[in-house]
């Protein structure tokens, strides 16, 4: 026998997209239930993604910063690491945020049912958990089931020396030699963490560049900064892995299969992308449309082909970022509440929380070229920025892209200490349609990193005084 429940909205998945949608629904007076497979809300982001990785990256940054000042003779010694304490610090932060979500759900009277939701009809969802069976009759459903790591056919999964990002964030051990498969954001962030913790790291990437969305001049600065820290092998593929020895023997081939070579590692971390959790949604009775990559198809109101069923977050496609899903979650709640809103952000920022950090938003220079935009760029290297020097961060750069026809800012890339924070002003300026004069006439505090946005804009306008004008 199932417990039968009626609700206006059921949200399947309690990650950032799902709980944001549910909380907004509740605030708009709509009775809402979240169905979540795990015991905690927060999804990948809180439990095994954004939050644990950024906690560890902060510690990695402190370790590296400390080493730099030891090298300068300003600090006396590099401190010993206490991995147990790092783990409990990270877990404490997750717990605090997790408790916060439980409190918010409880206070908003959003019920959480634990278990896997499976559609029976476009108005009925069944949940089967160990303790009970539920049948939820709903008016609207929001699918927010997220994504999971891609699995590759030649990897000996089941071997505890083969990790994904979730394993890596547990810090079960600090491998002497770590191979990271994939030069995307997650791979590079994990390299940053494990290098700081003492691993010797190789990254293998089958394409000819890391972070392909980012302009080459920014990647060049990144490569110069990390060249003594870890080795990135581009145009390289794994052919096979021999897991029968003490160390994993990895056979690889470089560009165009010209040569085959092998290296030994303690652990291999697979970070080659994520795929949507969409295989549960359909049954013989009705069909929610998905694309060839498994992403649920939605319109600009997040509606699937079934009019009362919506989908948001990682499960509908790229960019797979928490802030995109949260925005979609708020939007879908307002649409269900009767507002005629649409998903039309001009830009979605991206950040690799590496060291140095890289952030980009809007049109990059390479995109401007492809789109034949009449663009102008303006860069301020942080060795000309007071705060860059004060903070031992002169390796940074702020690069802005303007449309020369309108003088409007259309994109920005920043590399350096806390680069992602500078995307706030650039994103807002793009959303608000600001031109270079608007930014130049905004007083930027001194000495700050975001002052670099004001100075780079003044360089574009020929007004800068901190550097020589062209
Ligand atoms: P998820 O967070 O994946 O949540 C989906 C939830 O649905 C899960 O809790 C799952 O248990 C549940 N679920 C799935 N199927 C069912 C079902 N049938 N029934 C019930 N429940 C179900 N993004 C950023 O913006 N910034 C970052 O810094 C960042 N860092 C990251 C670092 C790592 C290591 C990883 C792996 C990801 C990172 N991301 C980051 C991506 C971010 O975590 C995701 O974009 C975000 O979690 C997506 O949110 P979501 O709610 O769509 O899905």
What does the model show?
There is one protein chain. This protein has 470 residues and is α/β, with parallel strands linked by helices. The chain has three domains: 209 residues, FAD/NAD(P)-binding domain (3-Layer(bba) Sandwich), CATH 3.50.50; 111 residues, FAD/NAD(P)-binding domain, CATH 3.50.50.60; 112 residues, Enolase-like, domain 1 (2-Layer Sandwich), CATH 3.30.390. 31% of the residues lie in helices and 25% in strands. It contains 13 helices and 22 strands. Strands 1, 2, 3, 4, 5, 6 and 17 form a seven-stranded mixed sheet that branches. The protein has a five-stranded parallel sheet with strand order 8-15-9-10-11. A five-stranded antiparallel sheet has the order 18-19-22-21-20, sandwiched between helices. Strand 12 and strand 13 form a beta hairpin. Helix 1 runs parallel beside helix 8, helix 3 packs antiparallel against helix 4 and helix 3 crosses helix 6. The longest helix is centred in the N-terminal third of the chain and has 25 residues. The protein is globular and about 75 Å long. The N and C termini lie far apart (78 Å). The mean pLDDT is 95. Flavin-adenine dinucleotide binds next to helix 1, strand 2, helix 2, helix 3 and strand 4.
Sheet-strand content, in percent, reads: 25-35%
* Secondary structure: number of strands: 22
> What is the total number of structural domains?
3
Overall outline: globular
Low-confidence stretches: none
The CATH architecture category of the largest domain equals 3-Layer(bba) Sandwich
Give the averaged pLDDT, no decimals.
95
Distance between the termini: 78 Å
CATH topology of the largest domain: FAD/NAD(P)-binding domain
Q: What's the tally of helices?
A: 13
Q: What about the largest sheet?
A: 7 strands, mixed
The SS-based structural class is: alpha/beta
Bound molecules: flavin-adenine dinucleotide
Q: What's the CATH C level of the largest domain?
A: Alpha Beta
Helix content percent band: 25-40%
Rg is 24 Å
CATH homology superfamily name of the largest domain: FAD/NAD(P)-binding domain
């Amino acid at each position: 026998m199932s417990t039968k429940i009626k609700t206006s909205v059921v949200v399947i998945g309690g990650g950032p997209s799902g709980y944001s949608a549910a909380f907004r629904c509740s605030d708009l007076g709509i009775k809402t239930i979240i169905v979540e497979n795990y015991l905690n809300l927060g999804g990948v982001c809180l439990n095994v993604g954004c939050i644990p990785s950024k906690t560890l990256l902060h510690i990695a940054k402190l370790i590296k910063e400390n080493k730099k000042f030891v090298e300068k003779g300003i600090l006396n010694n590099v401190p010993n690491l206490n991995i147990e304490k790092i783990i409990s610090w990270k877990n404490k932060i997750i717990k605090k945020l997790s408790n916060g979500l439980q409190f918010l759900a409880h206070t908003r009277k959003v019920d959480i049912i634990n278990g896997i939701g499976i559609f029976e009809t476009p108005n009925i969802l069944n949940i089967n958990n160990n303790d009970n069976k539920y049948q939820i009759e709903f008016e609207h459903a929001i699918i927010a089931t997220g994504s999971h790591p891609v699995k590759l056919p030649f990897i000996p999964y089941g071997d505890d020396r083969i990790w994904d990002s979730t394993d890596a964030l547990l810090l079960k051990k600090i491998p002497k030699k770590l191979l990271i498969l994939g030069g995307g954001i997650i791979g590079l962030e994990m390299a940053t963490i494990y290098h700081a913790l003492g691993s010797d790291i190789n990254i293998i990437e089958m394409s000819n560049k890391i972070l392909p969305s980012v302009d080459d001049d920014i990647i060049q600065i990144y490569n110069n900064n990390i060249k003594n820290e870890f080795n990135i092998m581009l145009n390289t593929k794994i052919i096979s892995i021999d897991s029968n020895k003490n160390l994993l023997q990895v056979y690889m081939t470089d560009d165009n299969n010209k040569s085959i070579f092998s290296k030994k590692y303690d652990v291999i971390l697979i970070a080659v992308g994520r795929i949507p959790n969409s295989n549960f949604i359909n049954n013989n009775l009705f069909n929610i449309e998905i694309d060839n990559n498994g992403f649920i198809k939605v319109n600009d109101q997040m509606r699937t082909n079934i009019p009362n069923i919506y989908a948001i977050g990682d499960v509908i496609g790229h960019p797979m970022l928490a802030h995109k899903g949260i925005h979609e979650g708020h939007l879908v709640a307002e649409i269900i509440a009767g507002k005629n809103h649409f998903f039309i952000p001009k830009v979605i920022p991206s950040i690799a929380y590496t060291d140095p950090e890289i952030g980009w938003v809007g049109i990059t220079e390479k995109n401007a070229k492809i789109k034949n935009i009449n663009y102008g760029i303006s860069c301020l290297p942080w060795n000309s920025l007071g705060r860059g020097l004060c903070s031992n961060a002169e390796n940074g750069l702020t690069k802005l892209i303007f449309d020369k026809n309108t003088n409007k800012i259309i994109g920005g890339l920043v590399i350096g200490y806390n680069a992602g924070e500078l995307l706030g002003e650039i994103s807002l300026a793009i959303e608000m349609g600001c031109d270079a004069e608007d930014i130049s006439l905004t007083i930027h505090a001194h000495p700050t990193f975001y002052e670099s946005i004001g100075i780079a804009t003044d360089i574009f306008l020929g007004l800068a005084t901190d550097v020589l004008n062209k």
